[in-house]
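Hi everyone, sorry if this is the wrong subforum. Our group has a chain we'd like a structural model of before ordering constructs, and none of us has done structure prediction before. Sequence below.
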Amino acid sequence: MKNISLMIMLLTLTWACSQSEDANLERERTIDNSLSGKWQLTEQLMDPGDGSGTFQPVNSDHTIEFFENGTFTSSESLCYADGVANPGTTGTVDQERKALMPEGCRDDKSLPAFELGYDLQPPHLIINLFCIEPCALKFKKVK
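Answer:
Right subforum, don't worry. Here is the predicted structure as tokens:
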């Protein structure tokens, strides 16, 4: 009788823990409403190397859209900051670490994952690009 009670208790505990882990994973995959939606590029920072760079207005069609399932789509590549219009980028978001993980930025799979930090300062979203000198994109939410 003790063995049956112990087994029932262990099964209940295992079931409760797996449900809790599933809920945590689902929470990690979703993003909050302040980030979800479509954003339009409005300014760009490209520092010349002496710290004097400031955000400058741009006229661009570059948009990025964040979805509630923790993914994003960018109309232009986020892999390179060369100012050349490149094919779009898709990827995932880690809101806890404030990081975007664009897919396809690294051909060499032995290298660490390519990540871009971001800072949400409503009504703006600033994405820090991978550059030697400071460079970033500033977006404004459009919907």
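For your construct planning: The chain has two domains: 1-30, 37-141. Residues 1-30 form one domain.
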